[in-house]
Amino acid sequence: MGKNTFKTPPPIKSIKVKVEEWDSEEDFNISELSGLECQEVITAANKVTGGQDRDHGVELYAELLSRCLSSADGDKPSKEWLMSVPFNTLKRLGDQAMKFNNMGPEAEAGAEKN
After folding, report:
1. Strand partners, 70
2. Under 8 Å CB-to-CB from 11, ≥6 apart: which residues?
3. How far apart are CA 46 and CA 9, in angstroms?
4. Which pLDDT tens digit goes with each residue over 17-26?
5. Contact between residue 26 and residue 70 where contact means Cβ atoms under 8 Å apart
6. Which of 47, 104, 97, 105 is nearest to 69 (CA)?
7. Helix (H, G, I), strand (E, B), or coil: what is residue 77?
8. What φ, ψ does residue 19 adopt, rounded to 5°?
9. Residue 32 φ/ψ, nearest 5 degrees
10. CATH number of the domain located at residue range(s) 12-104 in this protein
11. Tens digits of residue pLDDT in 42-90
12. pLDDT class of 95 with cuts at 50, 70, 90
């Protein structure tokens, strides 16, 4: 018998983000990350900057989005490109991705209650 182990692809959510700076509306897909990947993202971002400042946010969002974001064409943005995106747009995308992956302050607070 051959190896017929099919993994179900992770759920994907499609979002439309208005990017004022580019005067356009972009379609992006956010895919679900595993819990381990979510943890890796936070760890990677924390290593770079030790504070909860804006740069830390940029690093965190860029790391997260480089893993779970793809364009409508299926292209994955690089972390470098994401870090050059206007902050408000990056934050909007990052917030969506975090919500979709149950990350962030809300998720951490939820985890502590259980």
Report:
1. 29
2. 31, 32
3. 29
4. 766 666 777 7
5. no
6. 97
7. coil
8. -110, 95
9. -75, 135
10. 3.30.2220.20
11. 787 776 655 556 677 788 888 889 989 888 788 888 988 888 888 888 8
12. confident
- Cα distances (Å, whole numbers) of residue 113 to 34, 38, 78, 95, 109: 21, 19, 35, 22, 7
Provide the token pair at 2.
């051959």
| Token output for 17 | 């983000």
The pLDDT value recorded for residue 1 is: 47
Give which of 63, 88, 91 is closest to 78, Cα–Cα. 63
pLDDT of residue 113: 37
CB distance 68 to 77 below 8 Å? no
Upper half-sphere CA count for residue 32 (Cβ side, 13 Å): 10
